[in-house]
Amino acid sequence: MNQRQIESFLAVAETGNFTRAAERLYISQPAVSKQVLSLEDELGFSLLIREYHKDVQLTEAGKLYYDFFHKVTEEYKAVYEQAQQYQQKIRGTLRLGILTGWKIQEKLQKVLEQMKQDYPEIEIRMSFADLEPLRKEAEAGKLDLIFTIRDSIKDAEYESRPQSDCVHGQVAKVDCECPFYWVKLAEMNRVLFYADDLFEKMQKQSANRTADSVKKAEGDIFAESGDEDNRTVQDFRKITFFTVADGEYDSAELVREYMRPYGFEPKVQLVPNIEEAVARTYSGMGAMIIDEWSREMKNTSLQHIVLNSCNEAVLAWKKENKNPAFACFLQEIKKLLEK
Questions:
Q1: Within this chain, do residues 23 and 42 fall inside the same structural domain, yes or no?
Q2: In this protein, which residues make up the domain named HTH lysR-type (predicted)?
Q3: Per the count of CB atoms within 10 A, which of 120, 268, 301, 319 is most buried?
Q4: For the chain, percent helix, then strand, then coil, each to nearest 5?
Q5: pLDDT digits (tens, 9 = 90+) for 263-286
């Protein structure tokens, strides 16, 4: 049985009429009849005496179930109101850190709206940063939760050995030597981005380096006439890749690792932040690898190729976080993941 069945039965019992019950519930009369019949079938009892042109009456079983359902409904309302009062007493500030470049606000919208409804006294602050400063801010206790990629919270000296743990009712994973708990949100395809005119610019640079600017060097990738719509990853074997420097792990080696399945190791140049990587890529100076959550996916000035590998988007938090607002937010994330 469900709440709609019980509400329909109580409304009919209290109004004595299916039509008036339907008006009270703002649904059609046939819908009310269907709900009550379904409840009777499920219970195995007739709850109502139906006589033409007369108000319906309760059977003896109907009287028992009316008292029971009425009591349960009132108790449910009382408990719900108490829970609402408790939630409204929880107050504080929740500090969220989000990886720069991710277009994640739309994905968070439902959670943020639910938090505002259930916990109006909790203030949510969002900040954006690159991988290393995001992780360090969380380690320092300046952020309660960070939305980041799995690679960024691996311990630099220890192999990842996930084990089960439970915090505030949320099953998470923890690396033995890592200061974070984390939970997987999604898998995101890695994407290679480059400017429309990248190969045209590289071809001109190659020509300028050639003794005879008319005759291109044999085997020069930049001199190939490839169709921009049919570019493959292998076409980038002589292209410089930009990636953000991270003091905790070798981000350049990660880029090389991503390209090894395609048969080459690219030249990698470290830059201080994602904005510079995007600017250099946009200017046709090279390429970069980010993921499909990036806002650059909608940048019509950049081309992209989806790679055969994925990043894991994770929500991570410091193990000893005791902020009550954090526990509330984590619970809402859990509900979202279970849908």
A1: yes
A2: 1-59
A3: 268
A4: 45, 25, 30
A5: 999 999 999 988 999 999 999 999
Tell me the C-alpha to C-alpha distance, in Å, between residue 61 and each of 18, 123, 149, 177, 303. Answer: 19, 51, 59, 62, 70
Statement to judge: residues 127 and 46 lie in one domain:
no
What are the backbone dihedrals phi and psi of residue 104, each rounded to the nearest 5 degrees, phi first?
-110, -10
Residues 171, 183 contacting (CB under 8 angstroms) = yes
Among the listed residues 331, 339, 328, 317, the one whose alpha carbon sits nearest the alpha carbon of residue 148: 317
Cα–Cα distance for residue pair 19/14, rounded to 1 Å: 12
**Same-domain pairing of 322 and 181:** yes
Produce one character per residue of 217-226: b if its CB has 16 or more CB atoms within 10 Å, e if not. Answer: eeeebbbeee
pLDDT 10s digits, 86-110: 666 777 899 999 998 888 877 788 8
Q: Do 195 and 306 lie in a common domain?
A: yes
The pair of structure tokens assigned to 150 is 């799995």
Query: In which residue are the tokens 């192999």 written?
Result: 159
